[in-house]
Amino acid sequence: MAQLARVRSWFAFAVALVAMFAACGDGTSSGGACDPACASGFQCIADTCVPVIVGGCDAGCGSGTECIAGQCVQIQAPVECVPACASGRTCVNGGCVSDAVAGGKGHTSTPGSSWTVLVYLVADNDLEPAALVDLEEMMAVGDSAGFRFVVQVDRSPDYTSEGVGNLANWDSAKRLVVKSGSFEEIADLGEIDTTDPAVLADFIDWGLTTYPADRTMLILWDHGGGWEGFGVDETTAGKPLLKLNTIRKGISQGLADADKERFDIIGFDACLMANAETALVLAPYGEYLLASEETEPGHGWDYRSFAAAKTDSSIDPVSLAKSVLSGFFAQAAAEATDKDLTLSIIDLTLIGELGSAMNAMATALTGAVVSSSPRIGKSREEATRFGKAPDPQQETNLVDFGDFARRLAAAEGASFAAAKKQLDDALARVVVQTRNGPASGGATGLTIYFPPFSKFYNASYDAIPEAAPWRVFLNAYYTGGASITQPMDIGGAANEGFVSWVDGEATIEVPIGAEAAAALVSAEAWVGLVDSDDGSVYLLATFPADFTGSSLTASWAGEAVFLSQGTGGSIGYVEVEADDESGLLVVNVPFAYVDSPGSQDVGYVIRREFLDPQTLQSYGYLYYEIGDSSTSELYPVPGSSLVPIIPVARETGTEWTTTADAPFDATAEIGLTFISVFEDLEPGTLVYLEIDAYDYGGNLDYVSGLLTF
Fold this sequence. Notes:
Elements: H1 2-6, E1 42-45, E2 48-51, E3 65-68, E4 71-74, E5 89-92, E6 95-98, H2 99-102, E7 115-123, H3 128-141, E8 147-155, E9 173-179, E10 182-190, H4 197-210, E11 215-221, H5 244-257, E12 263-269, H6 276-282, E13 286-291, H7 307-311, H8 317-334, E14 342-347, H9 351-367, H10 369-382, E15 385-386, E16 398-400, H11 401-412, H12 417-430, E17 431-436, E18 447-449, H13 468-482, E19 499-502, E20 505-511, H14 514-519, E21 520-530, E22 537-544, E23 546-547, E24 551-556, E25 559-565, E26 568-571, E27 574-578, E28 585-594, E29 602-611, E30 618-626, E31 631-633, E32 641-644, E33 646-650, E34 653-657, E35 664-665, E36 671-676, E37 686-695, E38 700-708
Parallel strand pairs: 7-8, 7-11, 11-12, 12-13, 22-27
Antiparallel strand pairs: 1-2, 3-4, 5-6, 8-9, 9-10, 13-14, 14-17, 15-16, 16-18, 19-20, 20-24, 21-22, 21-37, 22-33, 23-24, 25-26, 25-36, 27-28, 28-29, 28-32, 29-30, 30-31, 32-35, 33-34, 37-38
């Protein structure tokens, strides 16, 4: 393991792999056309008409355009509110906002003496077992004269038949009030679509009207996908999400129907929801946002932490949010799931400062695209990122906003100093508190959407009006990348001359010219063995290549992962990176997940494990299932299996296969150890080495070679 221990700076994995499983989704490209077609002087980028102009907005913008991030951008018609907003409310981007809030309003100054916590618990999916655990935690808190949980929980017929408290199993949706040691069932709603904003609005209206309180909190519980949305209802055709705009619609309508201005806290007990886009969209409907930048472990929040509000029903929103944050981390530490944990408390009443800082940063970035794109791209690669996945089509592309700006300013000097300071100042005020595990130490509280290349841009992002300034920068960045006249070029023709044995390690060293070095954004090494029967290359590991300024290098001592269960076992495929804040190694091992024997519904699962780089001691791991638009901890059902998969390069292309003799039981422990395949390798076996290099436009060049063992 000498190579893995030695490497300190790791580039992020961004190579496109051939998709095998339909369940993994195919992503959304930005290559669509603009409808209607762009007028003269405009170009279509990511389904948005962006003007081809130089000089910013100095000359003013024409009719139908708006100056955003220094560019005149064609804008869409305002999003109307349907139904129309009632008196006292203003339509803002499709949501009805209280006039008092729309005009700017700080925090409520009157102390409260009671709390109602509404929990919109979307458990008609594989998280159903976790929902029962959280309901038990709520029941352990119970209620008081000044505190109550009011829950709407939609269950599934597929994942567990257990009851909870005094309630037998059900697979419909119920409305419950949590008591001490039991539940009061208010209604059984039958089968509902929890991804319908009208269903969310109805729950909010009913909960706030029936159980009024001085302070209120709305918790949205389920899978999360960042700005793409929240919630998966598997009994609904197509399994849609509540998109960010439909969350806006549901919350705003529910508040309007209940004649309430806003919530004291909006919380997401879900993955990846602490992002700038979510905060900007939901700011009119809550004073604070409580959410995680990273994927959450399946246990989610510890609802016993709400006892702070039962004990003292006059507790203020920040103190209650801090109690939940502390409980979340304490439970995760006890279950060894805290290494990449995050949770942020965001002051939504100050979110205008974040919007201004986003605009300033987008303006600075847009103006520097021509001169600074390589450093922009490299800063993005090196920044703390969340919701990462081996298949880049499944990557959420959520980058910690503050960490990205910090790295960019360090790379560019004074060019971005003013924009970085404005962003730092905004985050210092908006982020009341953020807490991170050691493997997420660079996080500053909120992420921003930033795909590395235009082919990974999801055009649904265009539907978020609040993201317009950032979208203009992304369009400019991708336009600059597409205009690169000299694609990435490394190595030359004599590829085999770049590989050799050095101190028992298979080594590849590729010279890189000044032009390619200036455009370089990321580089990774692929290593594996060649099948002597058919020449196929079994790729066993990938890890970042070292960049010395004039060459790219990587060495491999034969490290590979061995996965075992009972008497069975097989070699797996592993991606390795190092967290530069904690120094921990982060390894990702992919599996195919099959929920029942013979099922054609194949999922894509990653085992993410944290290791000491010197001793390889494990600090815990989780299995994450990566869906079409969300990521969550895997909850395997009885009879399900996990099959370790590895990429195999053949003459016809790259495909995924397995070396396991039989699938592993997904509900049982799977051992993972590192071995050296060189120890038992037959003399004459061919060892494969490859380095891939990308520029900021997504252009790829690679060098590969073979060594005889």
